[in-house]
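Thread title: Can someone regenerate the structure for this chain?

I was given the following input by a collaborator and told the matching structure tokens would be attached. They weren't. Posting the sequence so someone can regenerate them.
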Amino acid sequence: MLQVESSLNATDYGQLTTDLITMRRLSVFGLILSVAFMPLVVFGGDKVIKMSTTTSTQASGLLDALLPAFAKDIGIKVRVFAKGTGAAIRDGTDGNVDVIFVHAKAREEAFVAEGYGTKRYAVMHNDFVILGPPNDPAGIRGMKDAPGALRKIAVAEARFISRGDDSGTHTKEIDLWAAAGVPLVFKTTTLVKKGKKRQLTFKHPKGSGGWYLSIGQGMGKAITYADEKRAYTLADRGTYIKYKFGGKGGLDLEVLCEGDERLYNPYGVIPVNPGKHPHVKFDRADRFAQWLVSPRGQAVIANYKLLDRQLFYPDAIPDAR
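Best answer:
Regenerated them for you:
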């Protein structure tokens, strides 16, 4: 067996051991420092804002185009909570988010007037459409009078699926039933989302019985359910296009009523007021709002298409490209 002689004497060996122990301690100390300062390096000051928004901005796929572009341009990420407009506005009222992006203009203006939001920025619009099965049992195909179409659905007691979730779409639907002269009654329902219960009281057609179904779900699920039940529903055009032409299975539902000015569907973004909730990240939320209405943000919206179909139209800069 070969043996290797060490050329170190006892003094040299002791010094080497001391040096190794010192280096090990310095390495451990360096590791502790690196871990301690890791959040500052990785998160860059926590450049993330929270946004509550309507399900249609997410279900249509628009946020998948907008948010990466914003993060690339500005360096701020957006954490999304998609829900009905009513719930999104409540998030802003309670200070649970930094910004809201919704589509119920009267409610948005009230949010600002009551001091919960700093300013409403008009971002974009599309329109609502009344969808129905190809056989169209209520006979509304080609109508441009939205309340008139709903009146015919009620008279025929043809099945209608309502989101029933206090969203912007639900708000518009109830307004149209009222304009149609269909008697409405108040109904209280309990929504359960992520294990949390919330009671909602809203109007719905009187005596609807089995033909009017309120499901308390988002736009995509309402469209899918209406398709399964061969029923009518009110939807924003962007989400319908996404589900009709962007899905694997497609939909049988068709646009049967469109073009009424009462079906106009504007979207606004509102930073939450730090005067009400000092903890919100107002500066970053306002940068997001201003980016959305900038030439860059408006161009992303204008150029977001599905199979060459435009889903939303910019409002701040209508001719953005």
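The chain is about 40% helix and 25% strand.
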